[in-house]
Amino acid sequence: MVLRALLVAIAVTAIGLAFSHARLLDWALAMGTWATWVVPSALLWLLLACAAGQGLARRWPAWVAPVQALAGAVAAALVWQLLDHWRLAPRPASWLAPALAGGALALLMVRTVRWRERARLPATAAAQLADLQTRIRPHFLFNTLNTAIALVQHDPRRAEEVLEDLAELFRATLGTLNRASTLAEEAELARRYLSIEELRFGARLTVRWDLDPNAASARLPTLALQPLVENAVRHGVEPAARGGTIEVRSRRRRDRVLLSVTNTVPLEAAPRPGHGIGLASVRERLRLLHDLDADVHSGIIEDGRWRVSLSLPAE
């Protein structure tokens, strides 16, 4: 949002100056001068907009655009007056024109954000549909219930734990798709899922966890990690006669969190359909949550294993 606002403000200024400066050198000099006003004004507007925007949107949504435009006008006028006081403002030094320009640019940014939100609605619906397709599969439910039934006779406490894990998974599954979760919460759901699968596969399934505590607060869509580990079980462990290994790893790198799910690939098994559905859903829901600030990559790595890697903001 910050980068986009700065780019829009600079682009509009550059286009406007192009009409009044025929020579490239004159235009470049004018841009350098006007940038001393445009960039601070945009940053101040963003600060004011963030301070008032969330509460205003909840209580009086109709007032968001006018108040944001007013904030843009006030920010532009304040910065202009400061520059004029230090004799750095471009001439003429009247604050009225900059205030009008700042208000217009702020209104343009608000409208642009709304257009983007409306354009996302079809993508949101598609992501929700894909997510429904990747919800916990019926065969997993039946296998889990059969496992619990088998445990009731000789290990009733373990059977109870299995059913509790299953209940938690379905509680998350039936929750809202738009709610954000944390990496710590997602890891707990994935642990519950893999705990059930470890009973089913026994020694054929090896799970390695390597989670960075500093990455625990990173925001993820609800049920973003569980489909990835389920894919790893379904395509990396289940088809292999000797089973396989799944590794879940997270690291914090300054303001970024790197999350990966890696699984061995069975050489003797034919490719199974459906691997990309859950991954596409996770990718789309991450984009809806973090916009362009999240990346998802997948593929075979050097040692022949399959890895899905997520990069997202740390906070």
UniProtKB/TrEMBL annotation:
Gene3D superfamilies cross-referenced by the UniProt entry: Histidine kinase-like ATPase, C-terminal domain
Xref: InterPro entries: Bact_2-comp_sensor_kinase, HATPase_C_sf, Sig_transdc_His_kin_internal
Pfam families per record: His_kinase
Keywords, ordered alphabetically: Kinase, Membrane, Transferase, Transmembrane, Transmembrane helix
Source taxon at top rank: Bacteria
Residue spans crossing the bilayer: 32-51, 63-83, 95-113
Location of the Signal transduction histidine kinase internal region domain: 127-205
Signal peptide (residue range): none
GO cellular component, one term: membrane
GO molecular function: phosphorelay sensor kinase activity
Protein name per UniProt: Histidine kinase
Organism of provenance: Ideonella alba
